[in-house]
Specification:
The protein is mainly beta. It has three helices and 31 strands. It has a 29-stranded parallel sheet that branches. It has a two-stranded parallel ribbon with strand order 26-29. About 8% of the residues have low confidence.
């Protein structure tokens, strides 16, 4: 039956081909976009939305082993099987909506070909809804080992898919410096969700975002970020394809909930074009040090690195709540923020687990560049080690833009805790040595 996953022979090869390159292109070209329709009529509340086209044939949930011949033994290259599973899902889009769940049973799936898990080149498809499920962290694992690391991504979504979900899957870089996901968007590639997933190995990027004027809407729940990152786990704003980098301005709404962020070195989040980011709950640890000095980062590893590039200042907002940070080395930085407006808020956070060590009093784990417009920085009910460093930029007029409310300082008193711009800082009911 057309559209069904192929049957599987005894030797693991398929008896018939699901989609040839020509039919896949033809299917993709005929798919409707997922953008909202035009203006609704006055009686839209009573109207029933029209569903066009025909329901696609085939199974709604497919198994990469049973249906596409993947081995999952960690030795056989499963690139072709995963690519065929993706083409099957792309070929079953109906009325702009994805209709397929791709399941990966317990096993290790060796992938040597870039873009094998998602290969959505721009201009071929606009669809809403793609889901990958596994058996659990460490049970289902994709080992990405391309021949060369540079610009090699396991997934690419170029303005094609919205609402992409990954559940209970681990991803490991088998080639140091490979990357997990490239996402280019001018509004279409957005709404990603990761649930109980894990990243291991040495990557350049975890998720690298490119494009302009896009509301990204991405969420991570109960995930573990391990491994190491030459750039960052989430890097927002590559500027590789945007004609006007200043418009890279709406990287909005990223949520990290109950995370276990425990990686060896690198940056966790890097947002040079602003954004709206919320991190709630979990433990954040950098376990080691960068193996060498780098031009951009030196030897530091930073959880939240927010440099400043030219953009249109749509939003610059960061919130961290109920997080335990573990600072094991003076090269570990919690936040380095150079935004020139917006807000930064830490609530009920603690980075004092190693405040008894000799390096702690001289450490600067929180660093800011302050302008006349901010950012406005606030710490509520936090326990903090070392000192906080503030670098004034321009004339601030002595106006306080940083406030600590009911915080406890492990290594210094309020009188010498803020370094570099004491006139910009206010303390309310704080304790310290």
């Amino acid at each position: 039956m057309a559209g069904e996953p192929p049957s599987r022979a005894v030797d693991g090869h398929t008896r018939r081909t699901l989609l040839t390159a020509g039919t896949a292109t033809a299917l993709a070209a005929g798919l409707a976009g997922c953008d909202a329709p035009g203006a609704a009529p006055a009686d839209a509340a009573r109207a029933v939305p029209a569903v066009t086209g025909r329901r696609p044939r085939g199974k709604d949930t497919v198994d990469v082993v049973a249906d596409f011949g993947a081995r999952g033994d960690g030795r056989t290259d499963d690139s072709r099987a995963l690519a065929r599973a993706y083409r099957y899902a792309a070929g079953r889009v109906w009325d702009g909506i994805g209709r397929t769940v791709v399941h990966l049973p317990a096993g290790t799936y060796l992938v040597r070909e870039p873009n094998a898990l998602i290969d959505a080149a721009e201009g071929r498809l606009k669809a809403n809804g793609l889901r990958f499920t596994g058996a659990g962290k460490r049970m289902t694992q994709i080992l990405f080992a391309p021949d060369r690391a540079e610009d090699a991504y396991l997934c690419r979504n170029e303005n094609s898919w919205a609402n992409v979900a990954f559940e209970r899957i681990g991803f490991r870089s088998g080639t140091p410096g490979a990357s997990f996901f490239y996402s280019y968007s001018t509004g279409q590639a957005q709404d990603y969700r990761f649930t109980e997933c894990e990243w291991l190995g040495e990557w350049t990027y975890g998720l690298a975002l490119d494009g302009s004027n896009t509301n990204s809407e991405m969420r991570w729940d109960a995930c573990r970020v391990g491994g190491a990152y030459r750039r960052a786990f989430l890097y927002s704003g590559l500027s590789r394809r945007s004609r006007n980098p200043e418009q890279q301005d709406q990287f909005l709404n990223y949520w990290f909930n109950d995370m276990k962020v425990e990686y060896e070195w690198g940056n966790f989040l890097e947002f040079p074009y602003g954004g709206s980011i919320t991190c709630r709950g979990g433990s954040y640890i950098v376990t080691g040090r960068r193996p060498r000095d780098t031009a951009d980062y030196g030897r530091t590893s930073t959880f939240f690195r927010f440099p400043r590039e030219e953009h249109l200042d749509s939003v610059q907002r960061f919130h961290a709540e109920d997080i335990r940070f573990e600072i094991r080395h003076p090269e570990t930085v919690v936040i380095d923020c150079a935004w020139d407006s917006g807000t930064v808020h830490f609530n009920d956070c603690d980075d004092t687990s190693n405040s008894f060590k000799s390096f702690a009093p001289g450490s600067r784990p929180h660093r800011y560049r302050l302008t006349a417009n901010g950012p406005l920085v606030r710490y509520d009910s936090c326990r903090l080690s070392g000192r906080h460093l503030f670098r004034p930029d321009g004339e601030g007029g002595g106006r306080p833009v940083v406030r600590y409310d009911m915080c406890a300082f492990a290594d210094h008193g309020p009188e010498d805790f803020a370094e570099g711009a004491a006139d910009r800082v206010r303390f309310v009911d704080c304790l310290g040595r």
